[in-house]
Amino acid sequence: MGTLERTETLTHKIGTNGRVSVKTLTGALRVRGIEGEEAHLSVTYRIRATDQLAAERALDTGRVIVDRGPEFIEVETPDRRVSTGLAWLFGGARVFRAEISLDVPWGTQIRYETMSGSIEAMALVGDQKYKTVSGDIRLWSVGGLVEAGSVTGSITLDRGGDVRLRANTVSGGIKVRARRFHGLAVSTTSGGIAVVGDLDPSGVHRAESISGRVDLTPLSGVTAELRAVSGSIVSHVEHRSEGGRGYWRSIVGDGRASFRVNSTSGSLHILAARPEDRVVAPTAPAAPAAPTAPAPPTAAPTAPIEESELHETEETWNPDETGESAPDPVQDEELAVLQALERGEIGVDEAADRLERARG
């Protein structure tokens, strides 16, 4: 037995306001904003096999599918159970994962979806959507409209710029810090929520949690409201309190911004800001201006741009003496649950329960 690791890359021009879509079943997804008009795609495959030839055959069935045009690039991995399961049974190989990394222009529109992989993104200001079932979502120095969703994973945003955020998870936690929130909608069933930042008074800011605690560290005046059956507001800053019996309100400073929390048995804690809580300047630049209308074409439109193909940049084969390892039954059970959810055979709550039971 041994492990084949191969990295393949592609460079493609999408412009400063292009779009990128990535859909996978498993594996880590990473994206970073950069200057310029080109997107740089890197895919690293790790394949467990009896020999290098078997690993190469498995790679042929498990390679990512890339579609691209003048202002877009789309990446999708084939179904793991079909593409790599057969390779394992009949060819002596198994694709463990395909890790996908992208460097794209700052203003690119991003759509990342995975079933059990983690997602990491940084230095982006275009519209962004991130979705995973059992992986974590970690964001740094992003701005603009950001949507993030997970079932059992956590969602983290740090050093954000000017952000409009929608984030939800079932059993994971949500922790976000930004220079300014122009709109905020975060929800979780049993996880905790922590929000640090300046709340735009003209925006709508709300949090929902059935039993989790909500922490708010406001960097400006805010009126915090809690509607709960058995919760309460605990403030560690100077404030004025009102209400009782299911509805509480705490006014901090001028109280211009509004932050509303709905909960069953959770509490709202208003924390004092520390010097390190303030985001001085995000890594990403300001959001790009809207593109101007293009000039009328002087010739017939050309076919989608095909600048380059994925090409190999690095490969290593590492034989070992551990012998052939059997497939992990827990991993197989998790995969079956995720695929059932994707087909619509079970709901999100049932999927979360099954995943927790599978992991013991």
What is the strand and helix layout of this fold?
Layout: E1 2-13, E2 19-24, E3 29-34, E4 38-49, H1 52-62, E5 65-69, E6 72-76, H2 80-83, H3 85-91, E7 93-105, E8 109-114, E9 119-122, E10 128-132, E11 137-140, E12 144-150, E13 155-169, E14 174-188, E15 193-199, E16 205-209, E17 214-218, E18 222-227, E19 233-235, E20 240-243, E21 247-252, E22 257-263, E23 268-270, E24 311-319, H4 329-342, H5 348-358
Parallel strand pairs: 2-6, 2-8, 3-7, 3-9, 8-10, 9-11, 10-12, 11-13, 12-13, 13-14, 14-15, 14-16, 15-17, 16-22, 17-23, 18-22, 19-23
Antiparallel strand pairs: 1-4, 1-24, 4-7, 5-6, 18-21, 20-21
Helix pairs in contact: 4-5
- Summed up, the helix count is 5
Mean pLDDT over all positions: 82
Low-confidence stretches: 80-90, 286-308, 321-326
How much helical structure, as a percent, in the residues?
10-25%
Question: Could you say which overall geometry the principal axes of the C-alpha atoms support?
Answer: globular
Question: Whole-number radius of gyration?
Answer: 23 Å
Main β-sheet, in a few words? 24 strands, mixed
Give the percentage of residues in beta strands.
Answer: over 45%
What is the count of β-strands?
24
**SSE series:** EEEEHEEHHEEEEEEEEEEEEEEEEEEHH
Distance between the termini: 29 Å
How many structurally independent domains?
Answer: 2
